[in-house]
Amino acid sequence: MKRWRRGIIWFAVIITVLAFLIVGFIKLIPEPPAKEIEMARQALLTARESKAEVYAKDIFKEANRYYDSAMDTWQAENKRFILFRDYSSVVRLSGISAEKSEAASKDTKSHANDLEQRTKKLLGSLNNILKELNNTYARFPLPKKTRSAISKGKLLVSEGQVAFRNGSLIEAEKKVAQAETLLKNAHNEARNLIYEYFENHRQWKVWMDQTIAESKKKNSTVIIVDKFASKCFVYKKGKKTAEFDAELGKNWVGDKSQRGDYATPEGRYRVTQKKEGRSTKYYKALLIDYPNADDKKRFKSAIDSGKLPRNTHIGGLIEIHGHGGKGADWTEGCVALTDSDMDKLYRLVSVGTPVTIIGSIANLDSILNNQF
User: How far apart are CA 336 and CA 355, in angstroms?
Assistant: First the structure.
């Protein structure tokens, strides 16, 4: 009996010692850095969702590199004997990764906001340029290269706006930056051309005032063609009594200098013949006395100075005629009205009626300041 009791006691002692040894062994095992790794992973995920790889590329790369190093180190430590494992480097690397990720998220927010505001402002500026180009230069005979640049710029602005609405700010910025170069260059070229064109505005105003004064003084009917506005006005006794839409020569800007330049002449003329029926192929027509004495003088001066070749012809047969309403400037230099408007005008005028063709009634400032 005594031997049995001593065996129980020894067994209890041994179990107790083993228990202490097991607990001690477990306490010596280093705790895996799962919590730190998870924090680093979540920080990376947050940064990625904020598009840090786009807006904070460098720092986001660093965050990824430290995270990968932490994982590699963790795996290496796990291969060692359990009591010899040291996770301090894993904790340090994952901590740095989390800090870099948080910094990337902050930078992303800041850069994205700046980019959004900058792109939004530039889009507004380019849309204003497009409005001016559409409103002022839609009919203006700009060089083909300039027209092509405007078309490409308009397309890029449209694509940039779509990217902006979709939140693709980098893509939007790239599109509008390309559009900015095209549209600003085209805008400058167009502005230079229109400034050059309007250098004659003072002369146009003199012609117009003289024509209206003649109408008032003689109680007569006169015609004034405003090329820039594409309008044909009728004045009687000094007051405007009718207004028609007009279409001009394909290259209506500037004064006509020679046959075949498709320009509509500028100056003071008179109706020399009224045509209808078989005498015209444009329904009805009012032939004017282009070239007049001033036109011939300018033409001779251009020949003498060498601006025009000596075999150049001054041209002629400029009319106000029908078959207009095509929605474009298509004539070889004449002024085209719709047939119904031509009927009205035809009844109002007679041979000898003054016809003054000018570049624009409005001055350039008023045109450019009324774009929006």
Answer: 14
Percent helix, strand and coil across the chain, each rounded to 5? 60, 15, 25
Q: What is the pLDDT of residues 67-119, one digit of tens each?
A: 999 999 999 999 988 888 899 999 999 999 999 999 999 999 888 889 999 99
Helix 88-137 × helix 57-78 angle, to 10°: 160
Strand order in the sheet with 335-336: 239-245, 231-236, 221-226, 354-358, 267-276, 284-288, 319-321, 335-336
pTM more than 0.90: no
Alpha carbons within 13 A on the beta-carbon side of 83? 5
DSSP secondary structure letter of residue 84? G
CA nearest neighbour of 318 among 292, 352, 343, 344: 292
For the CA atoms of 350, 352, 353, 356, the dihedral, rounded to the nearest 10 degrees, stands at 140
- pLDDT tens digit sequence for 225-263: 999 999 999 999 999 999 999 999 988 887 777 888 888
Cα(172)–Cα(156) distance, rounded to whole angstroms? 9
The DSSP code for 110 is: H
